[in-house]
Design goal:
By secondary structure, the protein is of the alpha/beta class. The protein is built from nine helices and eight strands. A hairpin with a 5-residue loop joins strand 5 and strand 6. Helix 2 packs across helix 3, helix 4 runs parallel beside helix 5 and helix 6 packs across helix 7.
């Protein structure tokens, strides 16, 4: 199973991706994690990406695609993969499809997590992140066991600048303009596209995700 999780910022893609990966044993592919790992390990692709990031520029799509390709090529045949928040644009999706074709692989399903903009605004304002491991919590929906620190390594949590309430509107506008069209893009492909309401508790939403995918508890 090759699965893409789509949805606006704050909808819970990261949480649902982790829950699904834990339940199925599938690999979760997050481009931000790939970039950090490649940079920290000093791989050739990581060194190229670091030059862009150091200069304050976006890492080119083709470089990200190559990192994803390396990750997929290293996985055993038959490994399920969850693409969490990637691709983000139709240009990325097109390049991604070319790469998948080269590996004789295809996207089997797309799960679109839906929620209203006001719900998302409230969620994002309550989000807290770990600088060390990248884990994300929410002060209301999914708080850490100890207030203000990461469950995994005890690192103090922080409120990202792009999670501040006054930046949420712009992030949602970018999603509606650049990423939301991917729903129609994949509806025109052979992938099965499923819409899942995500305004409930994380475990409730996860149950709906597994149901549409036919994945048992």
């Amino acid at each position: 199973m090759y699965l893409i999780l789509l949805g606006p910022p704050g909808v819970g893609k990261g949480t649902q991706g982790v829950l699904l990966a834990d339940a199925t044993g599938w690999q979760r592919v997050v481009t931000g994690d790939l970039l950090r790992t490649a940079k920290d390990e000093g791989t050739p692709l990581g060194l190229q990406a670091e030059q862009y990031m150091t200069a304050g520029n976006l890492v080119p799509d083709q470089l990200i695609i190559k990192m994803v390709e390396e990750k997929l090529a290293a996985l055993p045949d038959g490994t399920g993969v969850i693409f969490d928040g990637f691709p983000r644009t139709e240009a990325q999706a097109s390049a991604f499809n070319v790469m998948l074709d080269s590996l004789s692989r295809t996207i089997d399903a797309v799960v679109v997590l839906d929620a209203g903009d006001q719900v998302l605004t409230d969620r994002i304002a309550g989000r807290r992140s770990c600088r060390s491991c990248g884990s994300v919590y929410n002060t209301v929906l999914a708080p850490p066991k100890r207030e203000g620190v990461c469950d995994n390594d005890g690192t103090p949590l922080f409120h990202r600048a792009d999670d501040q309430a006054d930046t949420v509107r712009n992030r949602l506008d970018v999603y509606h303009r650049e990423t939301e069209p991917l729903i129609a893009y994949y509806e025109g492909s052979e992938a099965a596209v499923h819409r899942v309401p995500s305004e409930g508790a994380p475990d409730e939403v996860q149950g709906k995700v597994r149901e549409v995918l036919g994945v048992g508890e």
